[in-house]
Amino acid sequence: MVTSVRPAPTEGQPFGVRVQRFLIAAGSELGRIGAAQLATGRGDAMLRQYVEQCVDALVYRRLDELFRDGHRRGLLSAPPELLGETTRGALERLLNSQLPRELDWTAADLLRATVDTVLYGAIRPAHFGTDDEQLRAVIPTARDDEQEVDP
Q1: In total, how many domains does the chain have?
Q2: Residue 51 falls within a domain, yes or no?
Q3: 66-109, pLDDT tens digit by residue?
Q4: How far apart are CA 29 and CA 20, in angstroms?
Q5: What Cα–Cα distance (Å) separates residue 115 from each residue in 12, 99, 151?
Q6: How far apart are CA 132 and CA 48, in angstroms?
Q7: Is 90 part of a structural domain of the chain?
Q8: Cβ pair 80, 68 in contact under 8 A
Q9: Among 11, 14, 68, 91, which residue has the least CB neighbours within 10 Å?
Q10: pLDDT on residue 18
């Protein structure tokens, strides 16, 4: 049975706090259903399908809601659909790779690291301050094939 991830009440909380609390709740639920072990093929097909349905209902749909809300509030410059698909693709690839075992990470660890990387990037300034330049991804507005430069 698919339950719902219920993070601590986040009404009025900053976006980052809401995401963090959701990740904690989702991580607990991923551990409960054994997502990492079952996603790697250990377990029968029906059980694997159940885990995939749980992850979709408990993680991806809720993350999509958070991304839409963050975008609507002007906190996320990238389209929420792009953030959702990037997170989904990365996490599914990671769960089906050898990396979780090599790093000794749980599905919850992978989820937190993936969302953190998608939202904040992998490059961070060494020191945060008023004089430090914040690195941002370049979000394309439109593609103009006529202005592309040949390599």
Answers
A1: 1
A2: yes
A3: 999 999 999 998 999 999 999 999 988 887 788 888 888 888 88
A4: 14
A5: 21, 17, 33
A6: 46
A7: yes
A8: yes
A9: 11
A10: 93
Separation CA 3–CA 143 (nearest Å): 42
- The answer to whether residues 31 and 51 touch, using CB atoms and an 8 Å cutoff, is no
The chain-wide mean pLDDT, for the chain, equals 76
Q: Which domain holds residue 57?
A: 15-120
Residue 144 has pLDDT above 70, yes or no: no
Residue with tokens 């996490």: 91
Answer yes or no: is 74 within a domain.
yes
* Unique residue bearing structure tokens 């002007």: 74
One-letter-per-residue 3-state SS of the chain: CCCCCCCCCCCCCCHHHHHHHHHHHHHHHHHHHCHHHHHCCCCCHHHHHHHHHHHHHHHHHHHHHHHHHHHHCCCCCCCHHHHHHHHHHHHHHHHCCCHHHHHCCCHHHHHHHHHHHHHHCCCCCCCCCCCCCCCCCCCCCCCCHHHCCCC
Torsion, Cα of 70, 138, 140, 87 (10° steps): -50
Are the CB atoms for 98 and 126 separated by under 8 Å?
no
